[in-house]
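PROTEIN DATA CARD
Card holder: Putative K(+)-stimulated pyrophosphate-energized sodium pump
Chain length: 739
Origin: Algoriphagus boseongensis
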Amino acid sequence: MEQALIYVVPALGLVGLLAMAVKSAWVSKQQTGDANMVELSGYIAKGAMAFLKAEWKILGYFAVIAGILLAWSGTLVETSSPVIAISFVIGAFFSALAGYIGMKIATKANVRTTQAARTSLKQALKVSFTGGSVMGLGVAGLAVLGLGSLFIIFYQLYVVSVGAGVNGIEMEKALEVLAGFSLGAESIALFARVGGGIYTKAADVGADLVGKVEAGIPEDDVRNPATIADNVGDNVGDVAGMGADLFGSYVATILATMVLGREIVSLDNFGGIAPILLPMVLAGLGIIFSIMGMAFVTIKDDKGDVQKALNMGNWSSIIFTGIASFFIVRHMLPETLSIRGYEFTNMDVFYAIILGLVVGTLMSIITEYYTAMGKRPVLSIIKQSATGHATNIIGGLSVGMESTVLPILVLAGGIYGAYEFAGLYGVAIAAAGMMATTAMQLAIDAFGPIADNAGGIAEMSQLPEEVRGRTDILDAVGNTTAATGKGFAIASAALTSLALFAAFVGIAGIDAIDIYKADVLAGLFVGGMIPFIFSSLAIAAVGRAAMDMVNEVRRQFREIPGIMEYKAKPEYEKCVEISTKASIREMILPGAIALISPLIVGFAFGPEVLGGMLAGVTVSGVLMGMFQSNAGGAWDNAKKSFEKGVVINGETFYKKSEPHKASVTGDTVGDPFKDTSGPSMNILIKLMSIVALVIAPHISEKGHHTMADGSEMIKKEVKKEIKIIDGKKVETETVTITK
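Structure generated from the sequence above:
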């Protein structure tokens, strides 16, 4: 029975990849439109692949150097192995492959969505969402297949082959080596997210400021030299970047739950590994339920509600997962379990999973409220645009700050509730429950940039107004789903980081992190500062790259006669080259901060100070991520609202009006917030936690302590436990004196 369940996990990953292949083939068979449309989509695909190749070249060097260092470090402690380097390289490769799959299908689906929009909104939604679902299923399938297969190998190699127990040092070693897979995935995700974010926003700002504001033409006008780079940016940032991001989250969440599950002594029918297997089984079944949910995403005609269709698919996959988790938990886990003295039942684990699903849903709903058109926050920014650029900026900043309140309260309630149900394992399994429907979440998210590109191709190809009208409907919904996707990602990152944090504390051999200690408090403040310097570097990089882009677009308008009269073609490749070089150059320093700072603090000051720094970076990073992503999303939809006309103090304003120009400024400020630094926060906090987990055996305080004369030190240990007696939780205390 144990062996069968272990092999079911990678099999479910293969099912996801098979479904991905079927959907990808269907998208490829759809019509591509006329020669002009195909040519424009070809420019976008070529630019996207050029960026990926340039990025992979740099990341290839990084992976080799990091792999060599990990292999060496694996020889230094008993609970690691040089094999961790292989695990790291596989994780990095799978993360890059996930981004490639998404990029490839997105650049195929965009022009096919445009062509589908010539017939109906229903068909355009079907093509764009199916393209997005290829990305979702690819990411989830690769994660479950990779993690499940490596766990089988390491479990057999380090535990079964030596006849060791599930809760011993051998399983700790197996999971430590497996952590290399997560480290590789998160490392690539950070560079992909930051690099892609710098790329897309440099192009977007150039297209907006010179094309819209100075030349008075749409950003997707074929005469705009930056328009191809802008559309490429949608793919490298919101498709490849987000794909690698959620791939990393998915893997890190499952891994953290597995590490904590090792500490549970479980009298189950699976050889005691049920708490370790449970998050992988949940993830695998989540793929199946996501495939089922995708069938609900459809509308009847052009008057259908696209947002409602996407919500139906999302909620159905969540409900299916919640129902199935009841039977999974009852079947796999014994009646009672305990972790670090905290006793709980298998039903408590089920309640924690449901709580995770509820938290994820609430985070999406709240984010949608703060960023969607027609809601109070966006309307308040529109109203403040009437009095100029400065008041628009003030309005957007205040909305972003306000938008952190409800999500943080929901997160705090979720963390507290999950801990009450099942201790630290409850917090981790809640995150695993939230991430179970990642395939569906990512399908909805990737649908957005595909629809955005489709609208751009329609504009550049000068298709009839009704076609652009249909793509605009998809684009407006996609803008909201992009914001809710980022809200989901930051929520999952917060819970994942807490679970990784708990796993780090256990492996590092520390009982608590005492902020009364000066060095720990200093670490807390340094950690709180890191998201700010990280954001500063990312935003400044966008600013520098955007200046280069603006100068290039101005040069082309000035030096190439006939562009504005459609008599000459702009040099699109020059703008693509500027964004590519800038993003590759500028992504290195922010990435280095995330990777190196935990190493310096951990080895110089020890695990407790590192724990303080992780606490600081987690709290600060979650708040910064929410603030920036939501402010940027609200600014963007405030600008888009002017396309249909907005009423301010009884007067209707449209595009090219003074309030609209103010909204363009706000959107330009918000661009690097929502697409570069904001969404990078969740990878930053996860990556630093993963690095800490990997180095934990090297800085661990475990082991015998001796006195100066060589005799063993007497140690008094007070252990507090919470037990369930007559259905109530009772705290007991045990004092142990050891040499």
